[in-house]
Design goal:
homotetramer, alpha+beta, 3 helices, 22% helix
Amino acid sequence: MSAGALDPAAERRCRESFARQAFVLHLGGAMEEIAPGRAVLRLPFRPELAQQHGFFHAGALTTLADTAAGYAAFTLMPEDGAVLTVEFKMNLLRPGRGAAAIARAEVLKPGRTLMTVRADVFCAAENGAEQLAATMLATMMCVQGRADVPPG
Amino acid sequence: MSAGALDPAAERRCRESFARQAFVLHLGGAMEEIAPGRAVLRLPFRPELAQQHGFFHAGALTTLADTAAGYAAFTLMPEDGAVLTVEFKMNLLRPGRGAAAIARAEVLKPGRTLMTVRADVFCAAENGAEQLAATMLATMMCVQGRADVPPG
Amino acid sequence: MSAGALDPAAERRCRESFARQAFVLHLGGAMEEIAPGRAVLRLPFRPELAQQHGFFHAGALTTLADTAAGYAAFTLMPEDGAVLTVEFKMNLLRPGRGAAAIARAEVLKPGRTLMTVRADVFCAAENGAEQLAATMLATMMCVQGRADVPPG
Amino acid sequence: MSAGALDPAAERRCRESFARQAFVLHLGGAMEEIAPGRAVLRLPFRPELAQQHGFFHAGALTTLADTAAGYAAFTLMPEDGAVLTVEFKMNLLRPGRGAAAIARAEVLKPGRTLMTVRADVFCAAENGAEQLAATMLATMMCVQGRADVPPG
């Protein structure tokens, strides 16, 4: 979508907002990269992230993908904007098996109000080899001036 | 979709499978009801389930909805079947605010291999008043005879 | 979603807009009902609407569902608003076989900018018996003041 | 997904099946390319393909994308297989304005029963300049041995 680095103020807004992402942090997720229109998040596997067969639960992968998609969009929003997820679709391509999940999100189409974002989720083996485990197509909304939704 | 109660063996299979749902249990989710083609799950709010604005994270609501949808489908599967999520779409209708989230899933169309399932997610205030917060449309798959995917 | 009849001016706006729906009209679609937050469209089967197996093409059913969803949303928009489809997901539940397809759309959540709409598509046999053939979950947007998108 | 050309028998199956696509042909769609796991379809604009604002109707773009996605999947199926659309999600990124729409589909994950396919829809101006107008994420199913669904 975009090239180059995020300006320092925008990067700070992203990092500060991410630091308030209680759920993602509780799961162990970390922001690896953030750039204009792009974000990469990583989530190490832990037994408590599994579903009944021992793989990453689709909900954990979705949490990661949705959050990456949200921050990819957030990088392109004005500084008083807040990002809300309108909707997403997630296709699970393979069982989510591996030492970590990595979500790479990219804004396909920025807009003043809405942004369409794609996020691919890869599962990485101990040796670093990655396989595409899931893909998300999401719509993010920029909200401004709503008292119940603070910026971030 | 269906009426009546689940037969005892099917209910036991569902309960035993749910008892292996490490991620959902870790979040505090509980199975409230299970019936042929239907499942209801509940998730009390906790600060660690929140996103940056203090509402339920979409990923937590999705985890609940996906799991409810999976068990709604599982009730209609043969006893050696395992349920895998093929894909879902989730629309977030309102900020997920409340004392608990409740996912009510119903199979719209059962099939031998694929089942289409709808799951509505409500957020309940302390006084029990509920509002529709999100709705999911999902495709579940019945897998049989795959060594890497045990029944359940 | 809503009860009662549409006020005459809103109904006229819907009917006038629908009369400009070249594609839907070309396929033979007709608006059967329009009410606040709801719309019903009908499309008689014709051989040129079929896919390779002789059933309604998913694209024809989607056209009907998307249009019904759009007008369900449009009934709740201000008079200078135009409706644009942001996105939709469609699950095909059964082969689209029958003498006609009927799309019934209902706004699940109205909003000033975005509306979430569900549309069910039924296929009706010659004797009128209906079966649910597909279901759509859609996001519609109200656009105002865009010179390239006239009201309607 | 895949490289190289389709073997002649598979290409003939695709072309013969496409020749029975009454709806797509009625709209004026043509198959431009077919390769293992990939398909490209083109649809010239005509006034009867428009919605109320004069752009390509989302349903026409969806028909093109769904059909391209179906044939991308079909190239990877056994010769007695038939392809059915399970579901798709479509995000409309820009008004569908232009002299033609082009759908480019690619299988993201092949499977014996299910295939996940992405299809991007571009609108091309008279001078050939293309813009991404929509993107689809779809699930296709391979059906074998169903008397009511002939191969193709």
